[in-house]
Amino acid sequence: MKSVNTAAAGNRWIKKTLALACLGVTCAGASVSAQADETLNLYNWGDYINPEVLERFTAETGIEVNLDTYSSNEEMLAKLQVGATGYDIVFPSVHMQDIMAQLGLLEKTGINQSPGFENIDTSHLLAESDPEGEYCLPYGWGSVGIVYNKTLVPELNSWKEFFALPDQGKKIVMLDDMREDIGLALLLDGNSVNSVDPDELKSAQQFLLDTKPKVSAFTYDSIPMVQSGDIAAAQWYVGAMIYVKEMPDTLAYVIPEEGATMYQENMCVLKTAPNKENAKRFLEFFLQPEISALNTVQQTNGSMNKAAIELLPDDIRNDENINPGEETKEKLQIFRELGTGTRLYDRVWTKFRTAS
Amino acid sequence: MAVSDPTPDFLKIKNAFRHFATPEGGSVRALDGINLNVASNEFITLLGPSGCGKTTLLNIIAGFERLDSGSILLGGSSLLELPAHQRPVNTVFQSYALFPHLNIGDNVGYGLDVAGVAKKERNRRVSEALEMVGLSGVEKRRPSQLSGGQQQRVALARAIINRPKMLLLDEPLSALDRNLRSKMQIELKNLQSELGICFLFVTHDQEEALTMSDRIVVLNGGKIEQLGTPDEIYHRPASRFVTEFIGESNIFSGRVLESTPEFSRVDLGGAEVICNNPTLSAGEQVSLLIRPEHFHLKAADEPSSSRGLTAVLEQSVFIGRDHQLHCRMGNGQEVSALIRSSFKALQAGQPLTLEYDPAAWHVIPERERVNEVI
Amino acid sequence: MRSFNGQQKQLLVLLTPATLFLSVFFLGPLLIMAVSSFLEPGLYGGVEWSFYPWSYGRVLGWADGFYEEFDIVYLEILLRSAGLALATVAVTLLLCYPVAFWISRMPSRWKSFCIFMIALPFFSSMIIRLYAWILILRDSGFANQILLSLGIIAEPLDLMYSGTAVILGMVYIFVPFMFLPVYSSVENLDPKLIKASQDLGATPFTTFRRVIFPMTLPGVIAGSILVFIPALGNFVVPSMLGGAKVVMIGNLVEQQFLASRNWPFGATLSMIMILFMLLVVSFYLLKVMKKQHAA
Fold first, then answer.
1. Counting C-beta atoms within 10 Å of the first and last residue's C-beta, which end of chain A has fewer, N or C?
2. For residue C244, what is the domain's CATH number?
3. Three-state SS for A44?
4. Nearest 5°: CA angle at C8, between C5 and C14?
5. Collapsed DSSP state (helix, strand, coil) of residue A118
C-alpha cells in the first residue's frame, strides 16, 4: 500500500475511483482562491511533479506555487468546463490538449521562442493543434508495457507470452481503462490504437471478450500484487521502473515486442490564467536541462529534453524502457482524440465489461 | 368455567433457594429456604418490600428464572423441568406487557393462536374472556387506545384465556389510581372465586394484600416472616418486622413485672400496662404493640380505670371520620391513637387518658425470632 | 394580508435556513441532473442545449438511430447492481440481527464499547479499509496464511477477485448502516413482551415470529433501506475486490462522466437509478404501512 502512494507516472490513475465523487455539476469553483501578487497555481496529476522543482522555482523567483491535483484528463476538463478558474498551468495528455485547444481553453505562450527550447526533441511535438510548440511545452512521456514478477516468470518479451501465462496457472491483470484495453486489442490486431473503424473495433471487442476469462482483474493497483507474487504479470505504466529499481531481483518492466501504447503530457497555460507571466516563467524555468533532469530522476519516466537526458544518471539514461531507442519508439502509439468515435468505444467497453 | 374440588397442597414449594451475584462481587439471597403449600382455589399474596424475593419467586414459578436448589410441584408434578411456555400457569405482568403491534382481540387470543385453536372457537373464547373482565367489543382497538384500567383488564383476559391452573399476578394494580384500584381489587377477588383457580398475587401494598387474600405470605430478605390469614397478619403479627410493615402500630419495649394465667403486667419504663397474655414469665423482655384504633378516650363522666395510658396531646389531625391524635407519654414515648370525631375539639397540650382493652395488646417475646417453621 | 403570530414567526425564522440549504444543495443539483439528462451530449463532455430524449431511449427501449441504440445491457446492469445490493442487505441483516440481541443483553459499559467498535471503521477512509481487505484476501494474504499454517488447506484459496470477496467487502462496508437501526429497535424491545409470549405458550420460534420480529421490523426496514440505497450505487468494492470484472451501475455512470464523456447519459442512468430506488423503497414502505394498518 505504501508503494502505490509514492510518486510515479502511472500512479496518477489510481485515485480514479474517487474521481466521480468530485465530478459533475455540484463541483463548480476552483479550490484556489486567494491571489497574492506573486503566485502560480498548478493543476496537475497527483504525484506527477518533483516537489523539489517547485521549491527551487520559488527560491529562485520568489513566486509562491500552489498545487492542486486531478486523477484523469476528463476530470480536469470537466472541472474547467463547469467554470473552475484560478488555475494557471495544466498538464493534459496530448489528445486532451487538442480538445482543450478546440474549446479555446489554451493560451498561446510562444514558449518555442524561449532559450532552451532548441533542446526539445521535435518528434515529441505531437499535438495536432500545436505542431510548432507555440502553446505548450512537452513535459513527460512513457509507455504502457508489462510489469512482471521475475521469480514467477523468468523472462517475458511479448503480449503473446503475457496472455499465455494464465494457461500455465499464473495470474495476470490488466488496467481498468477503456482506451488502454481497447487500444491494446487494436494494436495486437495490427491496427491503429485510435481506430474508429467498426469492423476493427468489433475484432478488438472479440479479442477482449475472449481474453476476459483469463484475466484475474482489471485494476490500477497492480504493483503490490505483482511484488508479492499474487499476480505474475500486469499491464502497467513505465512508472513501474521506480519499483523495479528498488527490487531489481523481483520485478521487471518490459515494452513488449509487438509494441505498446504511449502517453505524453504537456505543460499548458490556460486562457483564464490569472498569472500568465509567472506561468511563462515557470515553463522557461522548466526548459533548463538540470531542472528537467531533476524531475525525470524522481519520476523515472521519459524526457524529451535532449540536454536533460545527457544529465541523467546512467541507469536511467541508458534504460531501454525509460529512454527507448528509435526502433522501439517506432512501435509505440499515442492516443488521439476520437471525437464522436468515443461513443463506439463506450459501447465496446460496456459490452466487454458486462460479459461474464 | 367449571370449579373443581379444591386440592389442599396444589402448589408445593420445598426448600427453595436462589441467590444473585451483585455487581460488587458479593451475593444476595433472593430466596433463602422457602417452604410453602398453596391450595388449588386459594388467593395467596406474596407481600413484602422491594428486594424481599417476592418477584423472584413468581418468576421462578412462571419459568423465567431458575432455582438454585429446592423443588416446586404443581398438582403433584414438578414444574422446574418445564420451559416457561409449557407450564400450566399464566402471568399478568406489572405494566401489562400488552403486544403493541397487535389489536386487543389478537392480544387476548394470542395464547389460543399459538396453540392452534380453530378460528371460530378462538373468537368465541376471546369475547368470553373480554366479557369476563367487563370489557366487551374492543377487539379491534389497539392497546395504546385504551386507558390504564382497560389495559389491565385486557392483560387479565389474555392471561386467563388459556385456562391456567394457576394465575400469577405481578403487582398488576400498581399503575392504577386509588379509586380504580379498589374497584379492581374486588373484581379480581370475584374473578378468582368464579374461576376457582389459584391466584398468586405479588404486591408491596399491605392494604391490597389485606383486602383480597385468603392468605398472605410476608417475605423479608428471602425468608418467610409470617404466613397467615389477613386477620392473623394484622392482629397477631409474628414479628416486629411484620408489625411495622402491616398497618400502623404503637410499639413499645417493656419488661414483664408479673404474669398470671389471666393477665400480665408489663413495665414500659415509667408506665404500666395490663395485657392478656398468659405465657409470659416475670422479668422477661418483650415487645408490646397496640393499633391506634384500639384506644378510646374516656368520657369525662366515666369512672377512671387502671387500664389507660396517660399522655399529653401534641397534635390532632382530622382525617374524615376519625381524628388522629399524636400524644406523648410521661416517659417521653410517642403514642398515636385513632378516635371517633364526635368529641368536642381537643386542645394541644391537653392531658388525656387513652383507654384500652387488655386483649388488644399483642406481645412478642424478644427471645423468640419468628420465622421459617410455620 | 394575513399576518403571522409570534409562534409562527419563530417557526419561520427557524425553518428558513434549513429549507434554503436543502433546496440549494439538495434539490438544486438534482434538478440540474434531471435537466441534463434530457439534453444532447457535447462532443467533449458537457451538454448542448437542445432537447434530446434518446438517452432514456437507449436504456428504456426507444432510440433514434445511429449513435443511440436501445440496449438491454443497461437494464441488466441495473438489475445486477440491485441483486448485489439485495444480497448485501440480506447478509448484513443476518449478521447484525443476532449480534444486536447479543450486545443489547450486555452490561452497559460493554454495550457502549461494542457499538463504538462497530462504528469505528467509519473513522477511516473506505478506500484504506478496502486495501486492508486486499492484504487479507490475496493469495499470499493473512487469510490464506492462517488456513495454510493450520493445515486446513494445502493450496491457497482463490479469495481475491471473486464474488465472495465482493460480498465480503460490501458487507464489511455497510454493516454499521444495518447494525445501528436494528440495534436501536432491539434495544427498545421490552423483554417483558418476550416473557409474556412465552408465558402464553409460545415456543421460542413462535415468539420470534409473532413478537420479536414484528416489533423490530421498523429497525430492520430502516437498516435495509440505509444499506440498499448506497449499495446500489457502490462500485468501489466490485472494482477493488472483484477486479472490476463485472460492471455495476455506479461504474457505468462514472464511465459516462469520464472516459466516455457523455454527461447526459450519465445523468440519465443516475435518474433511472434514483427512480428505481424510489420505487423499491416506497413499495417496501407502503407494504409495511398497510400491514401495520391491517393488523
1. C
2. 1.10.3720.10
3. strand
4. 140
5. helix
Is the residue at C5 inside a domain? Answer: no
Q: Domain residues of chain A, as ranges?
A: 2-141+264-323, 142-261+335-354
Q: Please provide residue C287's backbone torsions phi and psi, each rounded to the nearest 5 degrees.
A: -60, -45
Q: Per this entry, what is the length of chain B?
A: 374
Q: How far apart are CA C274 and CA A136, in angstroms?
A: 43
B70 φ/ψ angles, rounded to the nearest 5 degrees: 110, 180
| A108 C-beta neighbours (distance < 10 Å), count | 12
- pLDDT tens digit at each of 356 positions of chain A: 333 333 333 344 433 333 333 333 333 334 444 444 689 999 999 889 999 999 999 999 999 999 999 988 988 998 998 888 899 999 999 999 999 999 999 999 999 999 999 999 999 999 999 999 999 999 999 999 999 999 999 999 999 999 999 999 999 999 999 999 999 999 999 999 999 999 999 999 999 999 999 999 999 889 999 999 999 999 999 989 989 989 999 999 999 999 999 999 999 999 999 999 999 999 999 999 999 999 999 988 899 999 999 999 998 898 889 989 889 999 999 999 998 899 899 989 998 988 87
Looking at residue C208, the DSSP 8-state letter turns out to be I
Tell me whether residues B101 and C198 touch, CB distance under 8 A: no
CATH number of B250-365: 3.40.50.150, 1.10.10.60, 2.40.50.140, 1.10.645.10?
A: 2.40.50.140
Q: Which residue of B has its CA nearest to C200?
A: B111
> What are the residue ranges spanned by the domains of chain B?
11-244, 250-365
Q: Where in the sequence is the domain holding C66, given as residue range(s)?
A: 38-294
Q: Which chain B residue shows the shortest CA-CA distance from C213?
A: B101
CATH code at A142-261+335-354: 3.40.190.10
- Pair A228, C138: CB distance under 8 Å: yes
Number of domains in chain C: 1
Q: Does residue A241 have a known ligand-binding role?
A: no
Tell me the CATH class for A2-141+264-323.
alpha beta
Radius of gyration of chain A (CA): 20
Interface confidence, given as ipTM, is: 0.82
Cα–Cα distance for residue pair A187/A200, rounded to 1 Å? 10
Q: Is residue C204 part of a domain?
A: yes
Strand partners, B255: B267, B285
Q: Which CATH code is given to the segment(s) B11-244?
A: 3.40.50.300
With CB atoms and an 8 Å threshold, state whether C257 touches A20. yes
User: What is the nearest CA distance from C117 to chain B, expressed in angstroms?
Assistant: 24
Alpha-carbon distance of A231 to A170, in angstroms, equals 7
Q: Are C198 and B63 within 8 A, CB to CB?
A: yes
Helix axes C163-187, C213-233, angle to 10 degrees: 140
